[in-house]
Amino acid sequence: MGGKIKVVDLFAGCGGLTDxxxxxxxxxxxxxxxxxxxxxxTLKKRLKERWGYKNPxxxxxxxxxxxxxxxxxxxxxxxxxxxxxxxGKMAETAGGLDIIVGGPPCQAYSxxxxxxxxxxxxxxxxxxxxxxxxxxxxxxxxxxFIFENVPGxxxxxxxxxxIVERVTEAFxxxxxxxxxxxxxxxxxxxxxFGVPQSRKRVIILGVNxxxxxxxxxxxxxxxxKHILPKYKSDKLETVEDAIMDLPKIFPLDEPTELKGKKYxxxxxxxxxxxxxxxMHNKRDMEIFRELASDIxxxxxxxxxxxxxxxxxYQKTGKRSNIHKYYVLRRDKPSNTIPAHLYKxxxxxxxxxxxxxxxxxxxxxxxxQTFDDDFEFTGSLTEQYKMVGNAVPPKLAQAIALALRDxxxxxx
Length: 411
Prior knowledge:
Blueprint: E1 5-10, H1 16-23, E2 27-34, H2 37-49, H3 56-59, E3 60-62, H4 68-73, H5 87-94, E4 99-102, H6 111-116, H7 130-140, E5 144-149, H8 163-173, E6 176-177, H9 182-185, E7 187-189, E8 200-208, H10 216-227, H11 239-243, E9 250-258, E10 261-266, H12 282-296, H13 305-316, H14 361-367, H15 380-389, H16 393-408
Parallel strand pairs: 1-2, 1-4, 2-3, 4-5
Antiparallel strand pairs: 5-8, 6-8, 7-8, 9-10
Helix pairs in contact: 1-16, 10-16
């Protein structure tokens, strides 16, 4: 393909996919669509400061993707969202659109979410946000798209009908095809792509059947079996590799207050942004220290789930059916960085017992492979949520490179 590949990012969040695509130097991001304010602010800041965009307020479109017609054609007045010329004008000004990327919010597809919800998330509107994605693909008719989501989408059956069947059929109706066996080919392990985190994601490549000179299923098999694997990492990245060189943050003897906020740990205004600890009470800090020390000393008193449950009972006087604590292992990838990390960090305890705390936003961001100059705005809650919702940029970069190789066969 001559020139840069023009791409639009839907459900962009804070821009994990966009950042990975930009890092290749092969793609021109025309627009990013996201409806939450703080991710939009973070993404605008990144596009301006790292990627040199002069018009980030135009490129980042804050809007509800379910309002497809307005999103494409633009709108002048709205009680919630700032006026915008629309995706259609953006694509026209750029001279066309080659690729659409993005993943609808995954909470309705996640297995954990279905377990927590009394109706198994069957009534959640997010089950069907992919329909808006399909409409936008149908309007712009790109060469291909990348649709990202959680493994739970493979087993989600809202209304008794498989989401996979719905998605496959919806794209087929508009002339696009995806791989027939998603579980076998499209379910990727992020650790294989240099992400220091146990995280699996479904990455669906869809192709415009009218634009490729090959049987779609054969072409898609080549992508998953031969092209994408070329961009796997040679090394298993660990927690040690990712976060242990960051400035240490030690507990205080007594909490302190700064600018109206309470802190249990001493920290400085580090050059690296977002490396600020949560406030912890003394009981929790004692638990963190005890659990991390047990691993450091190799005593392994808390190696079993039952022993951790018992520790929780001893410290709190409450019984729990699930084990609430997990210390990150230095020599392994971390457990998954989830969106609900913003609620608490008890399952993401720092491995250094002397620090007796859960991980900071910056540490979570590093485990997601965000660069240190990627600054997250908003409250701590919003920052943790953004990081957990994001696609790891390193995974996105591998996908972007593989996608370029795939497209170069036909265009």
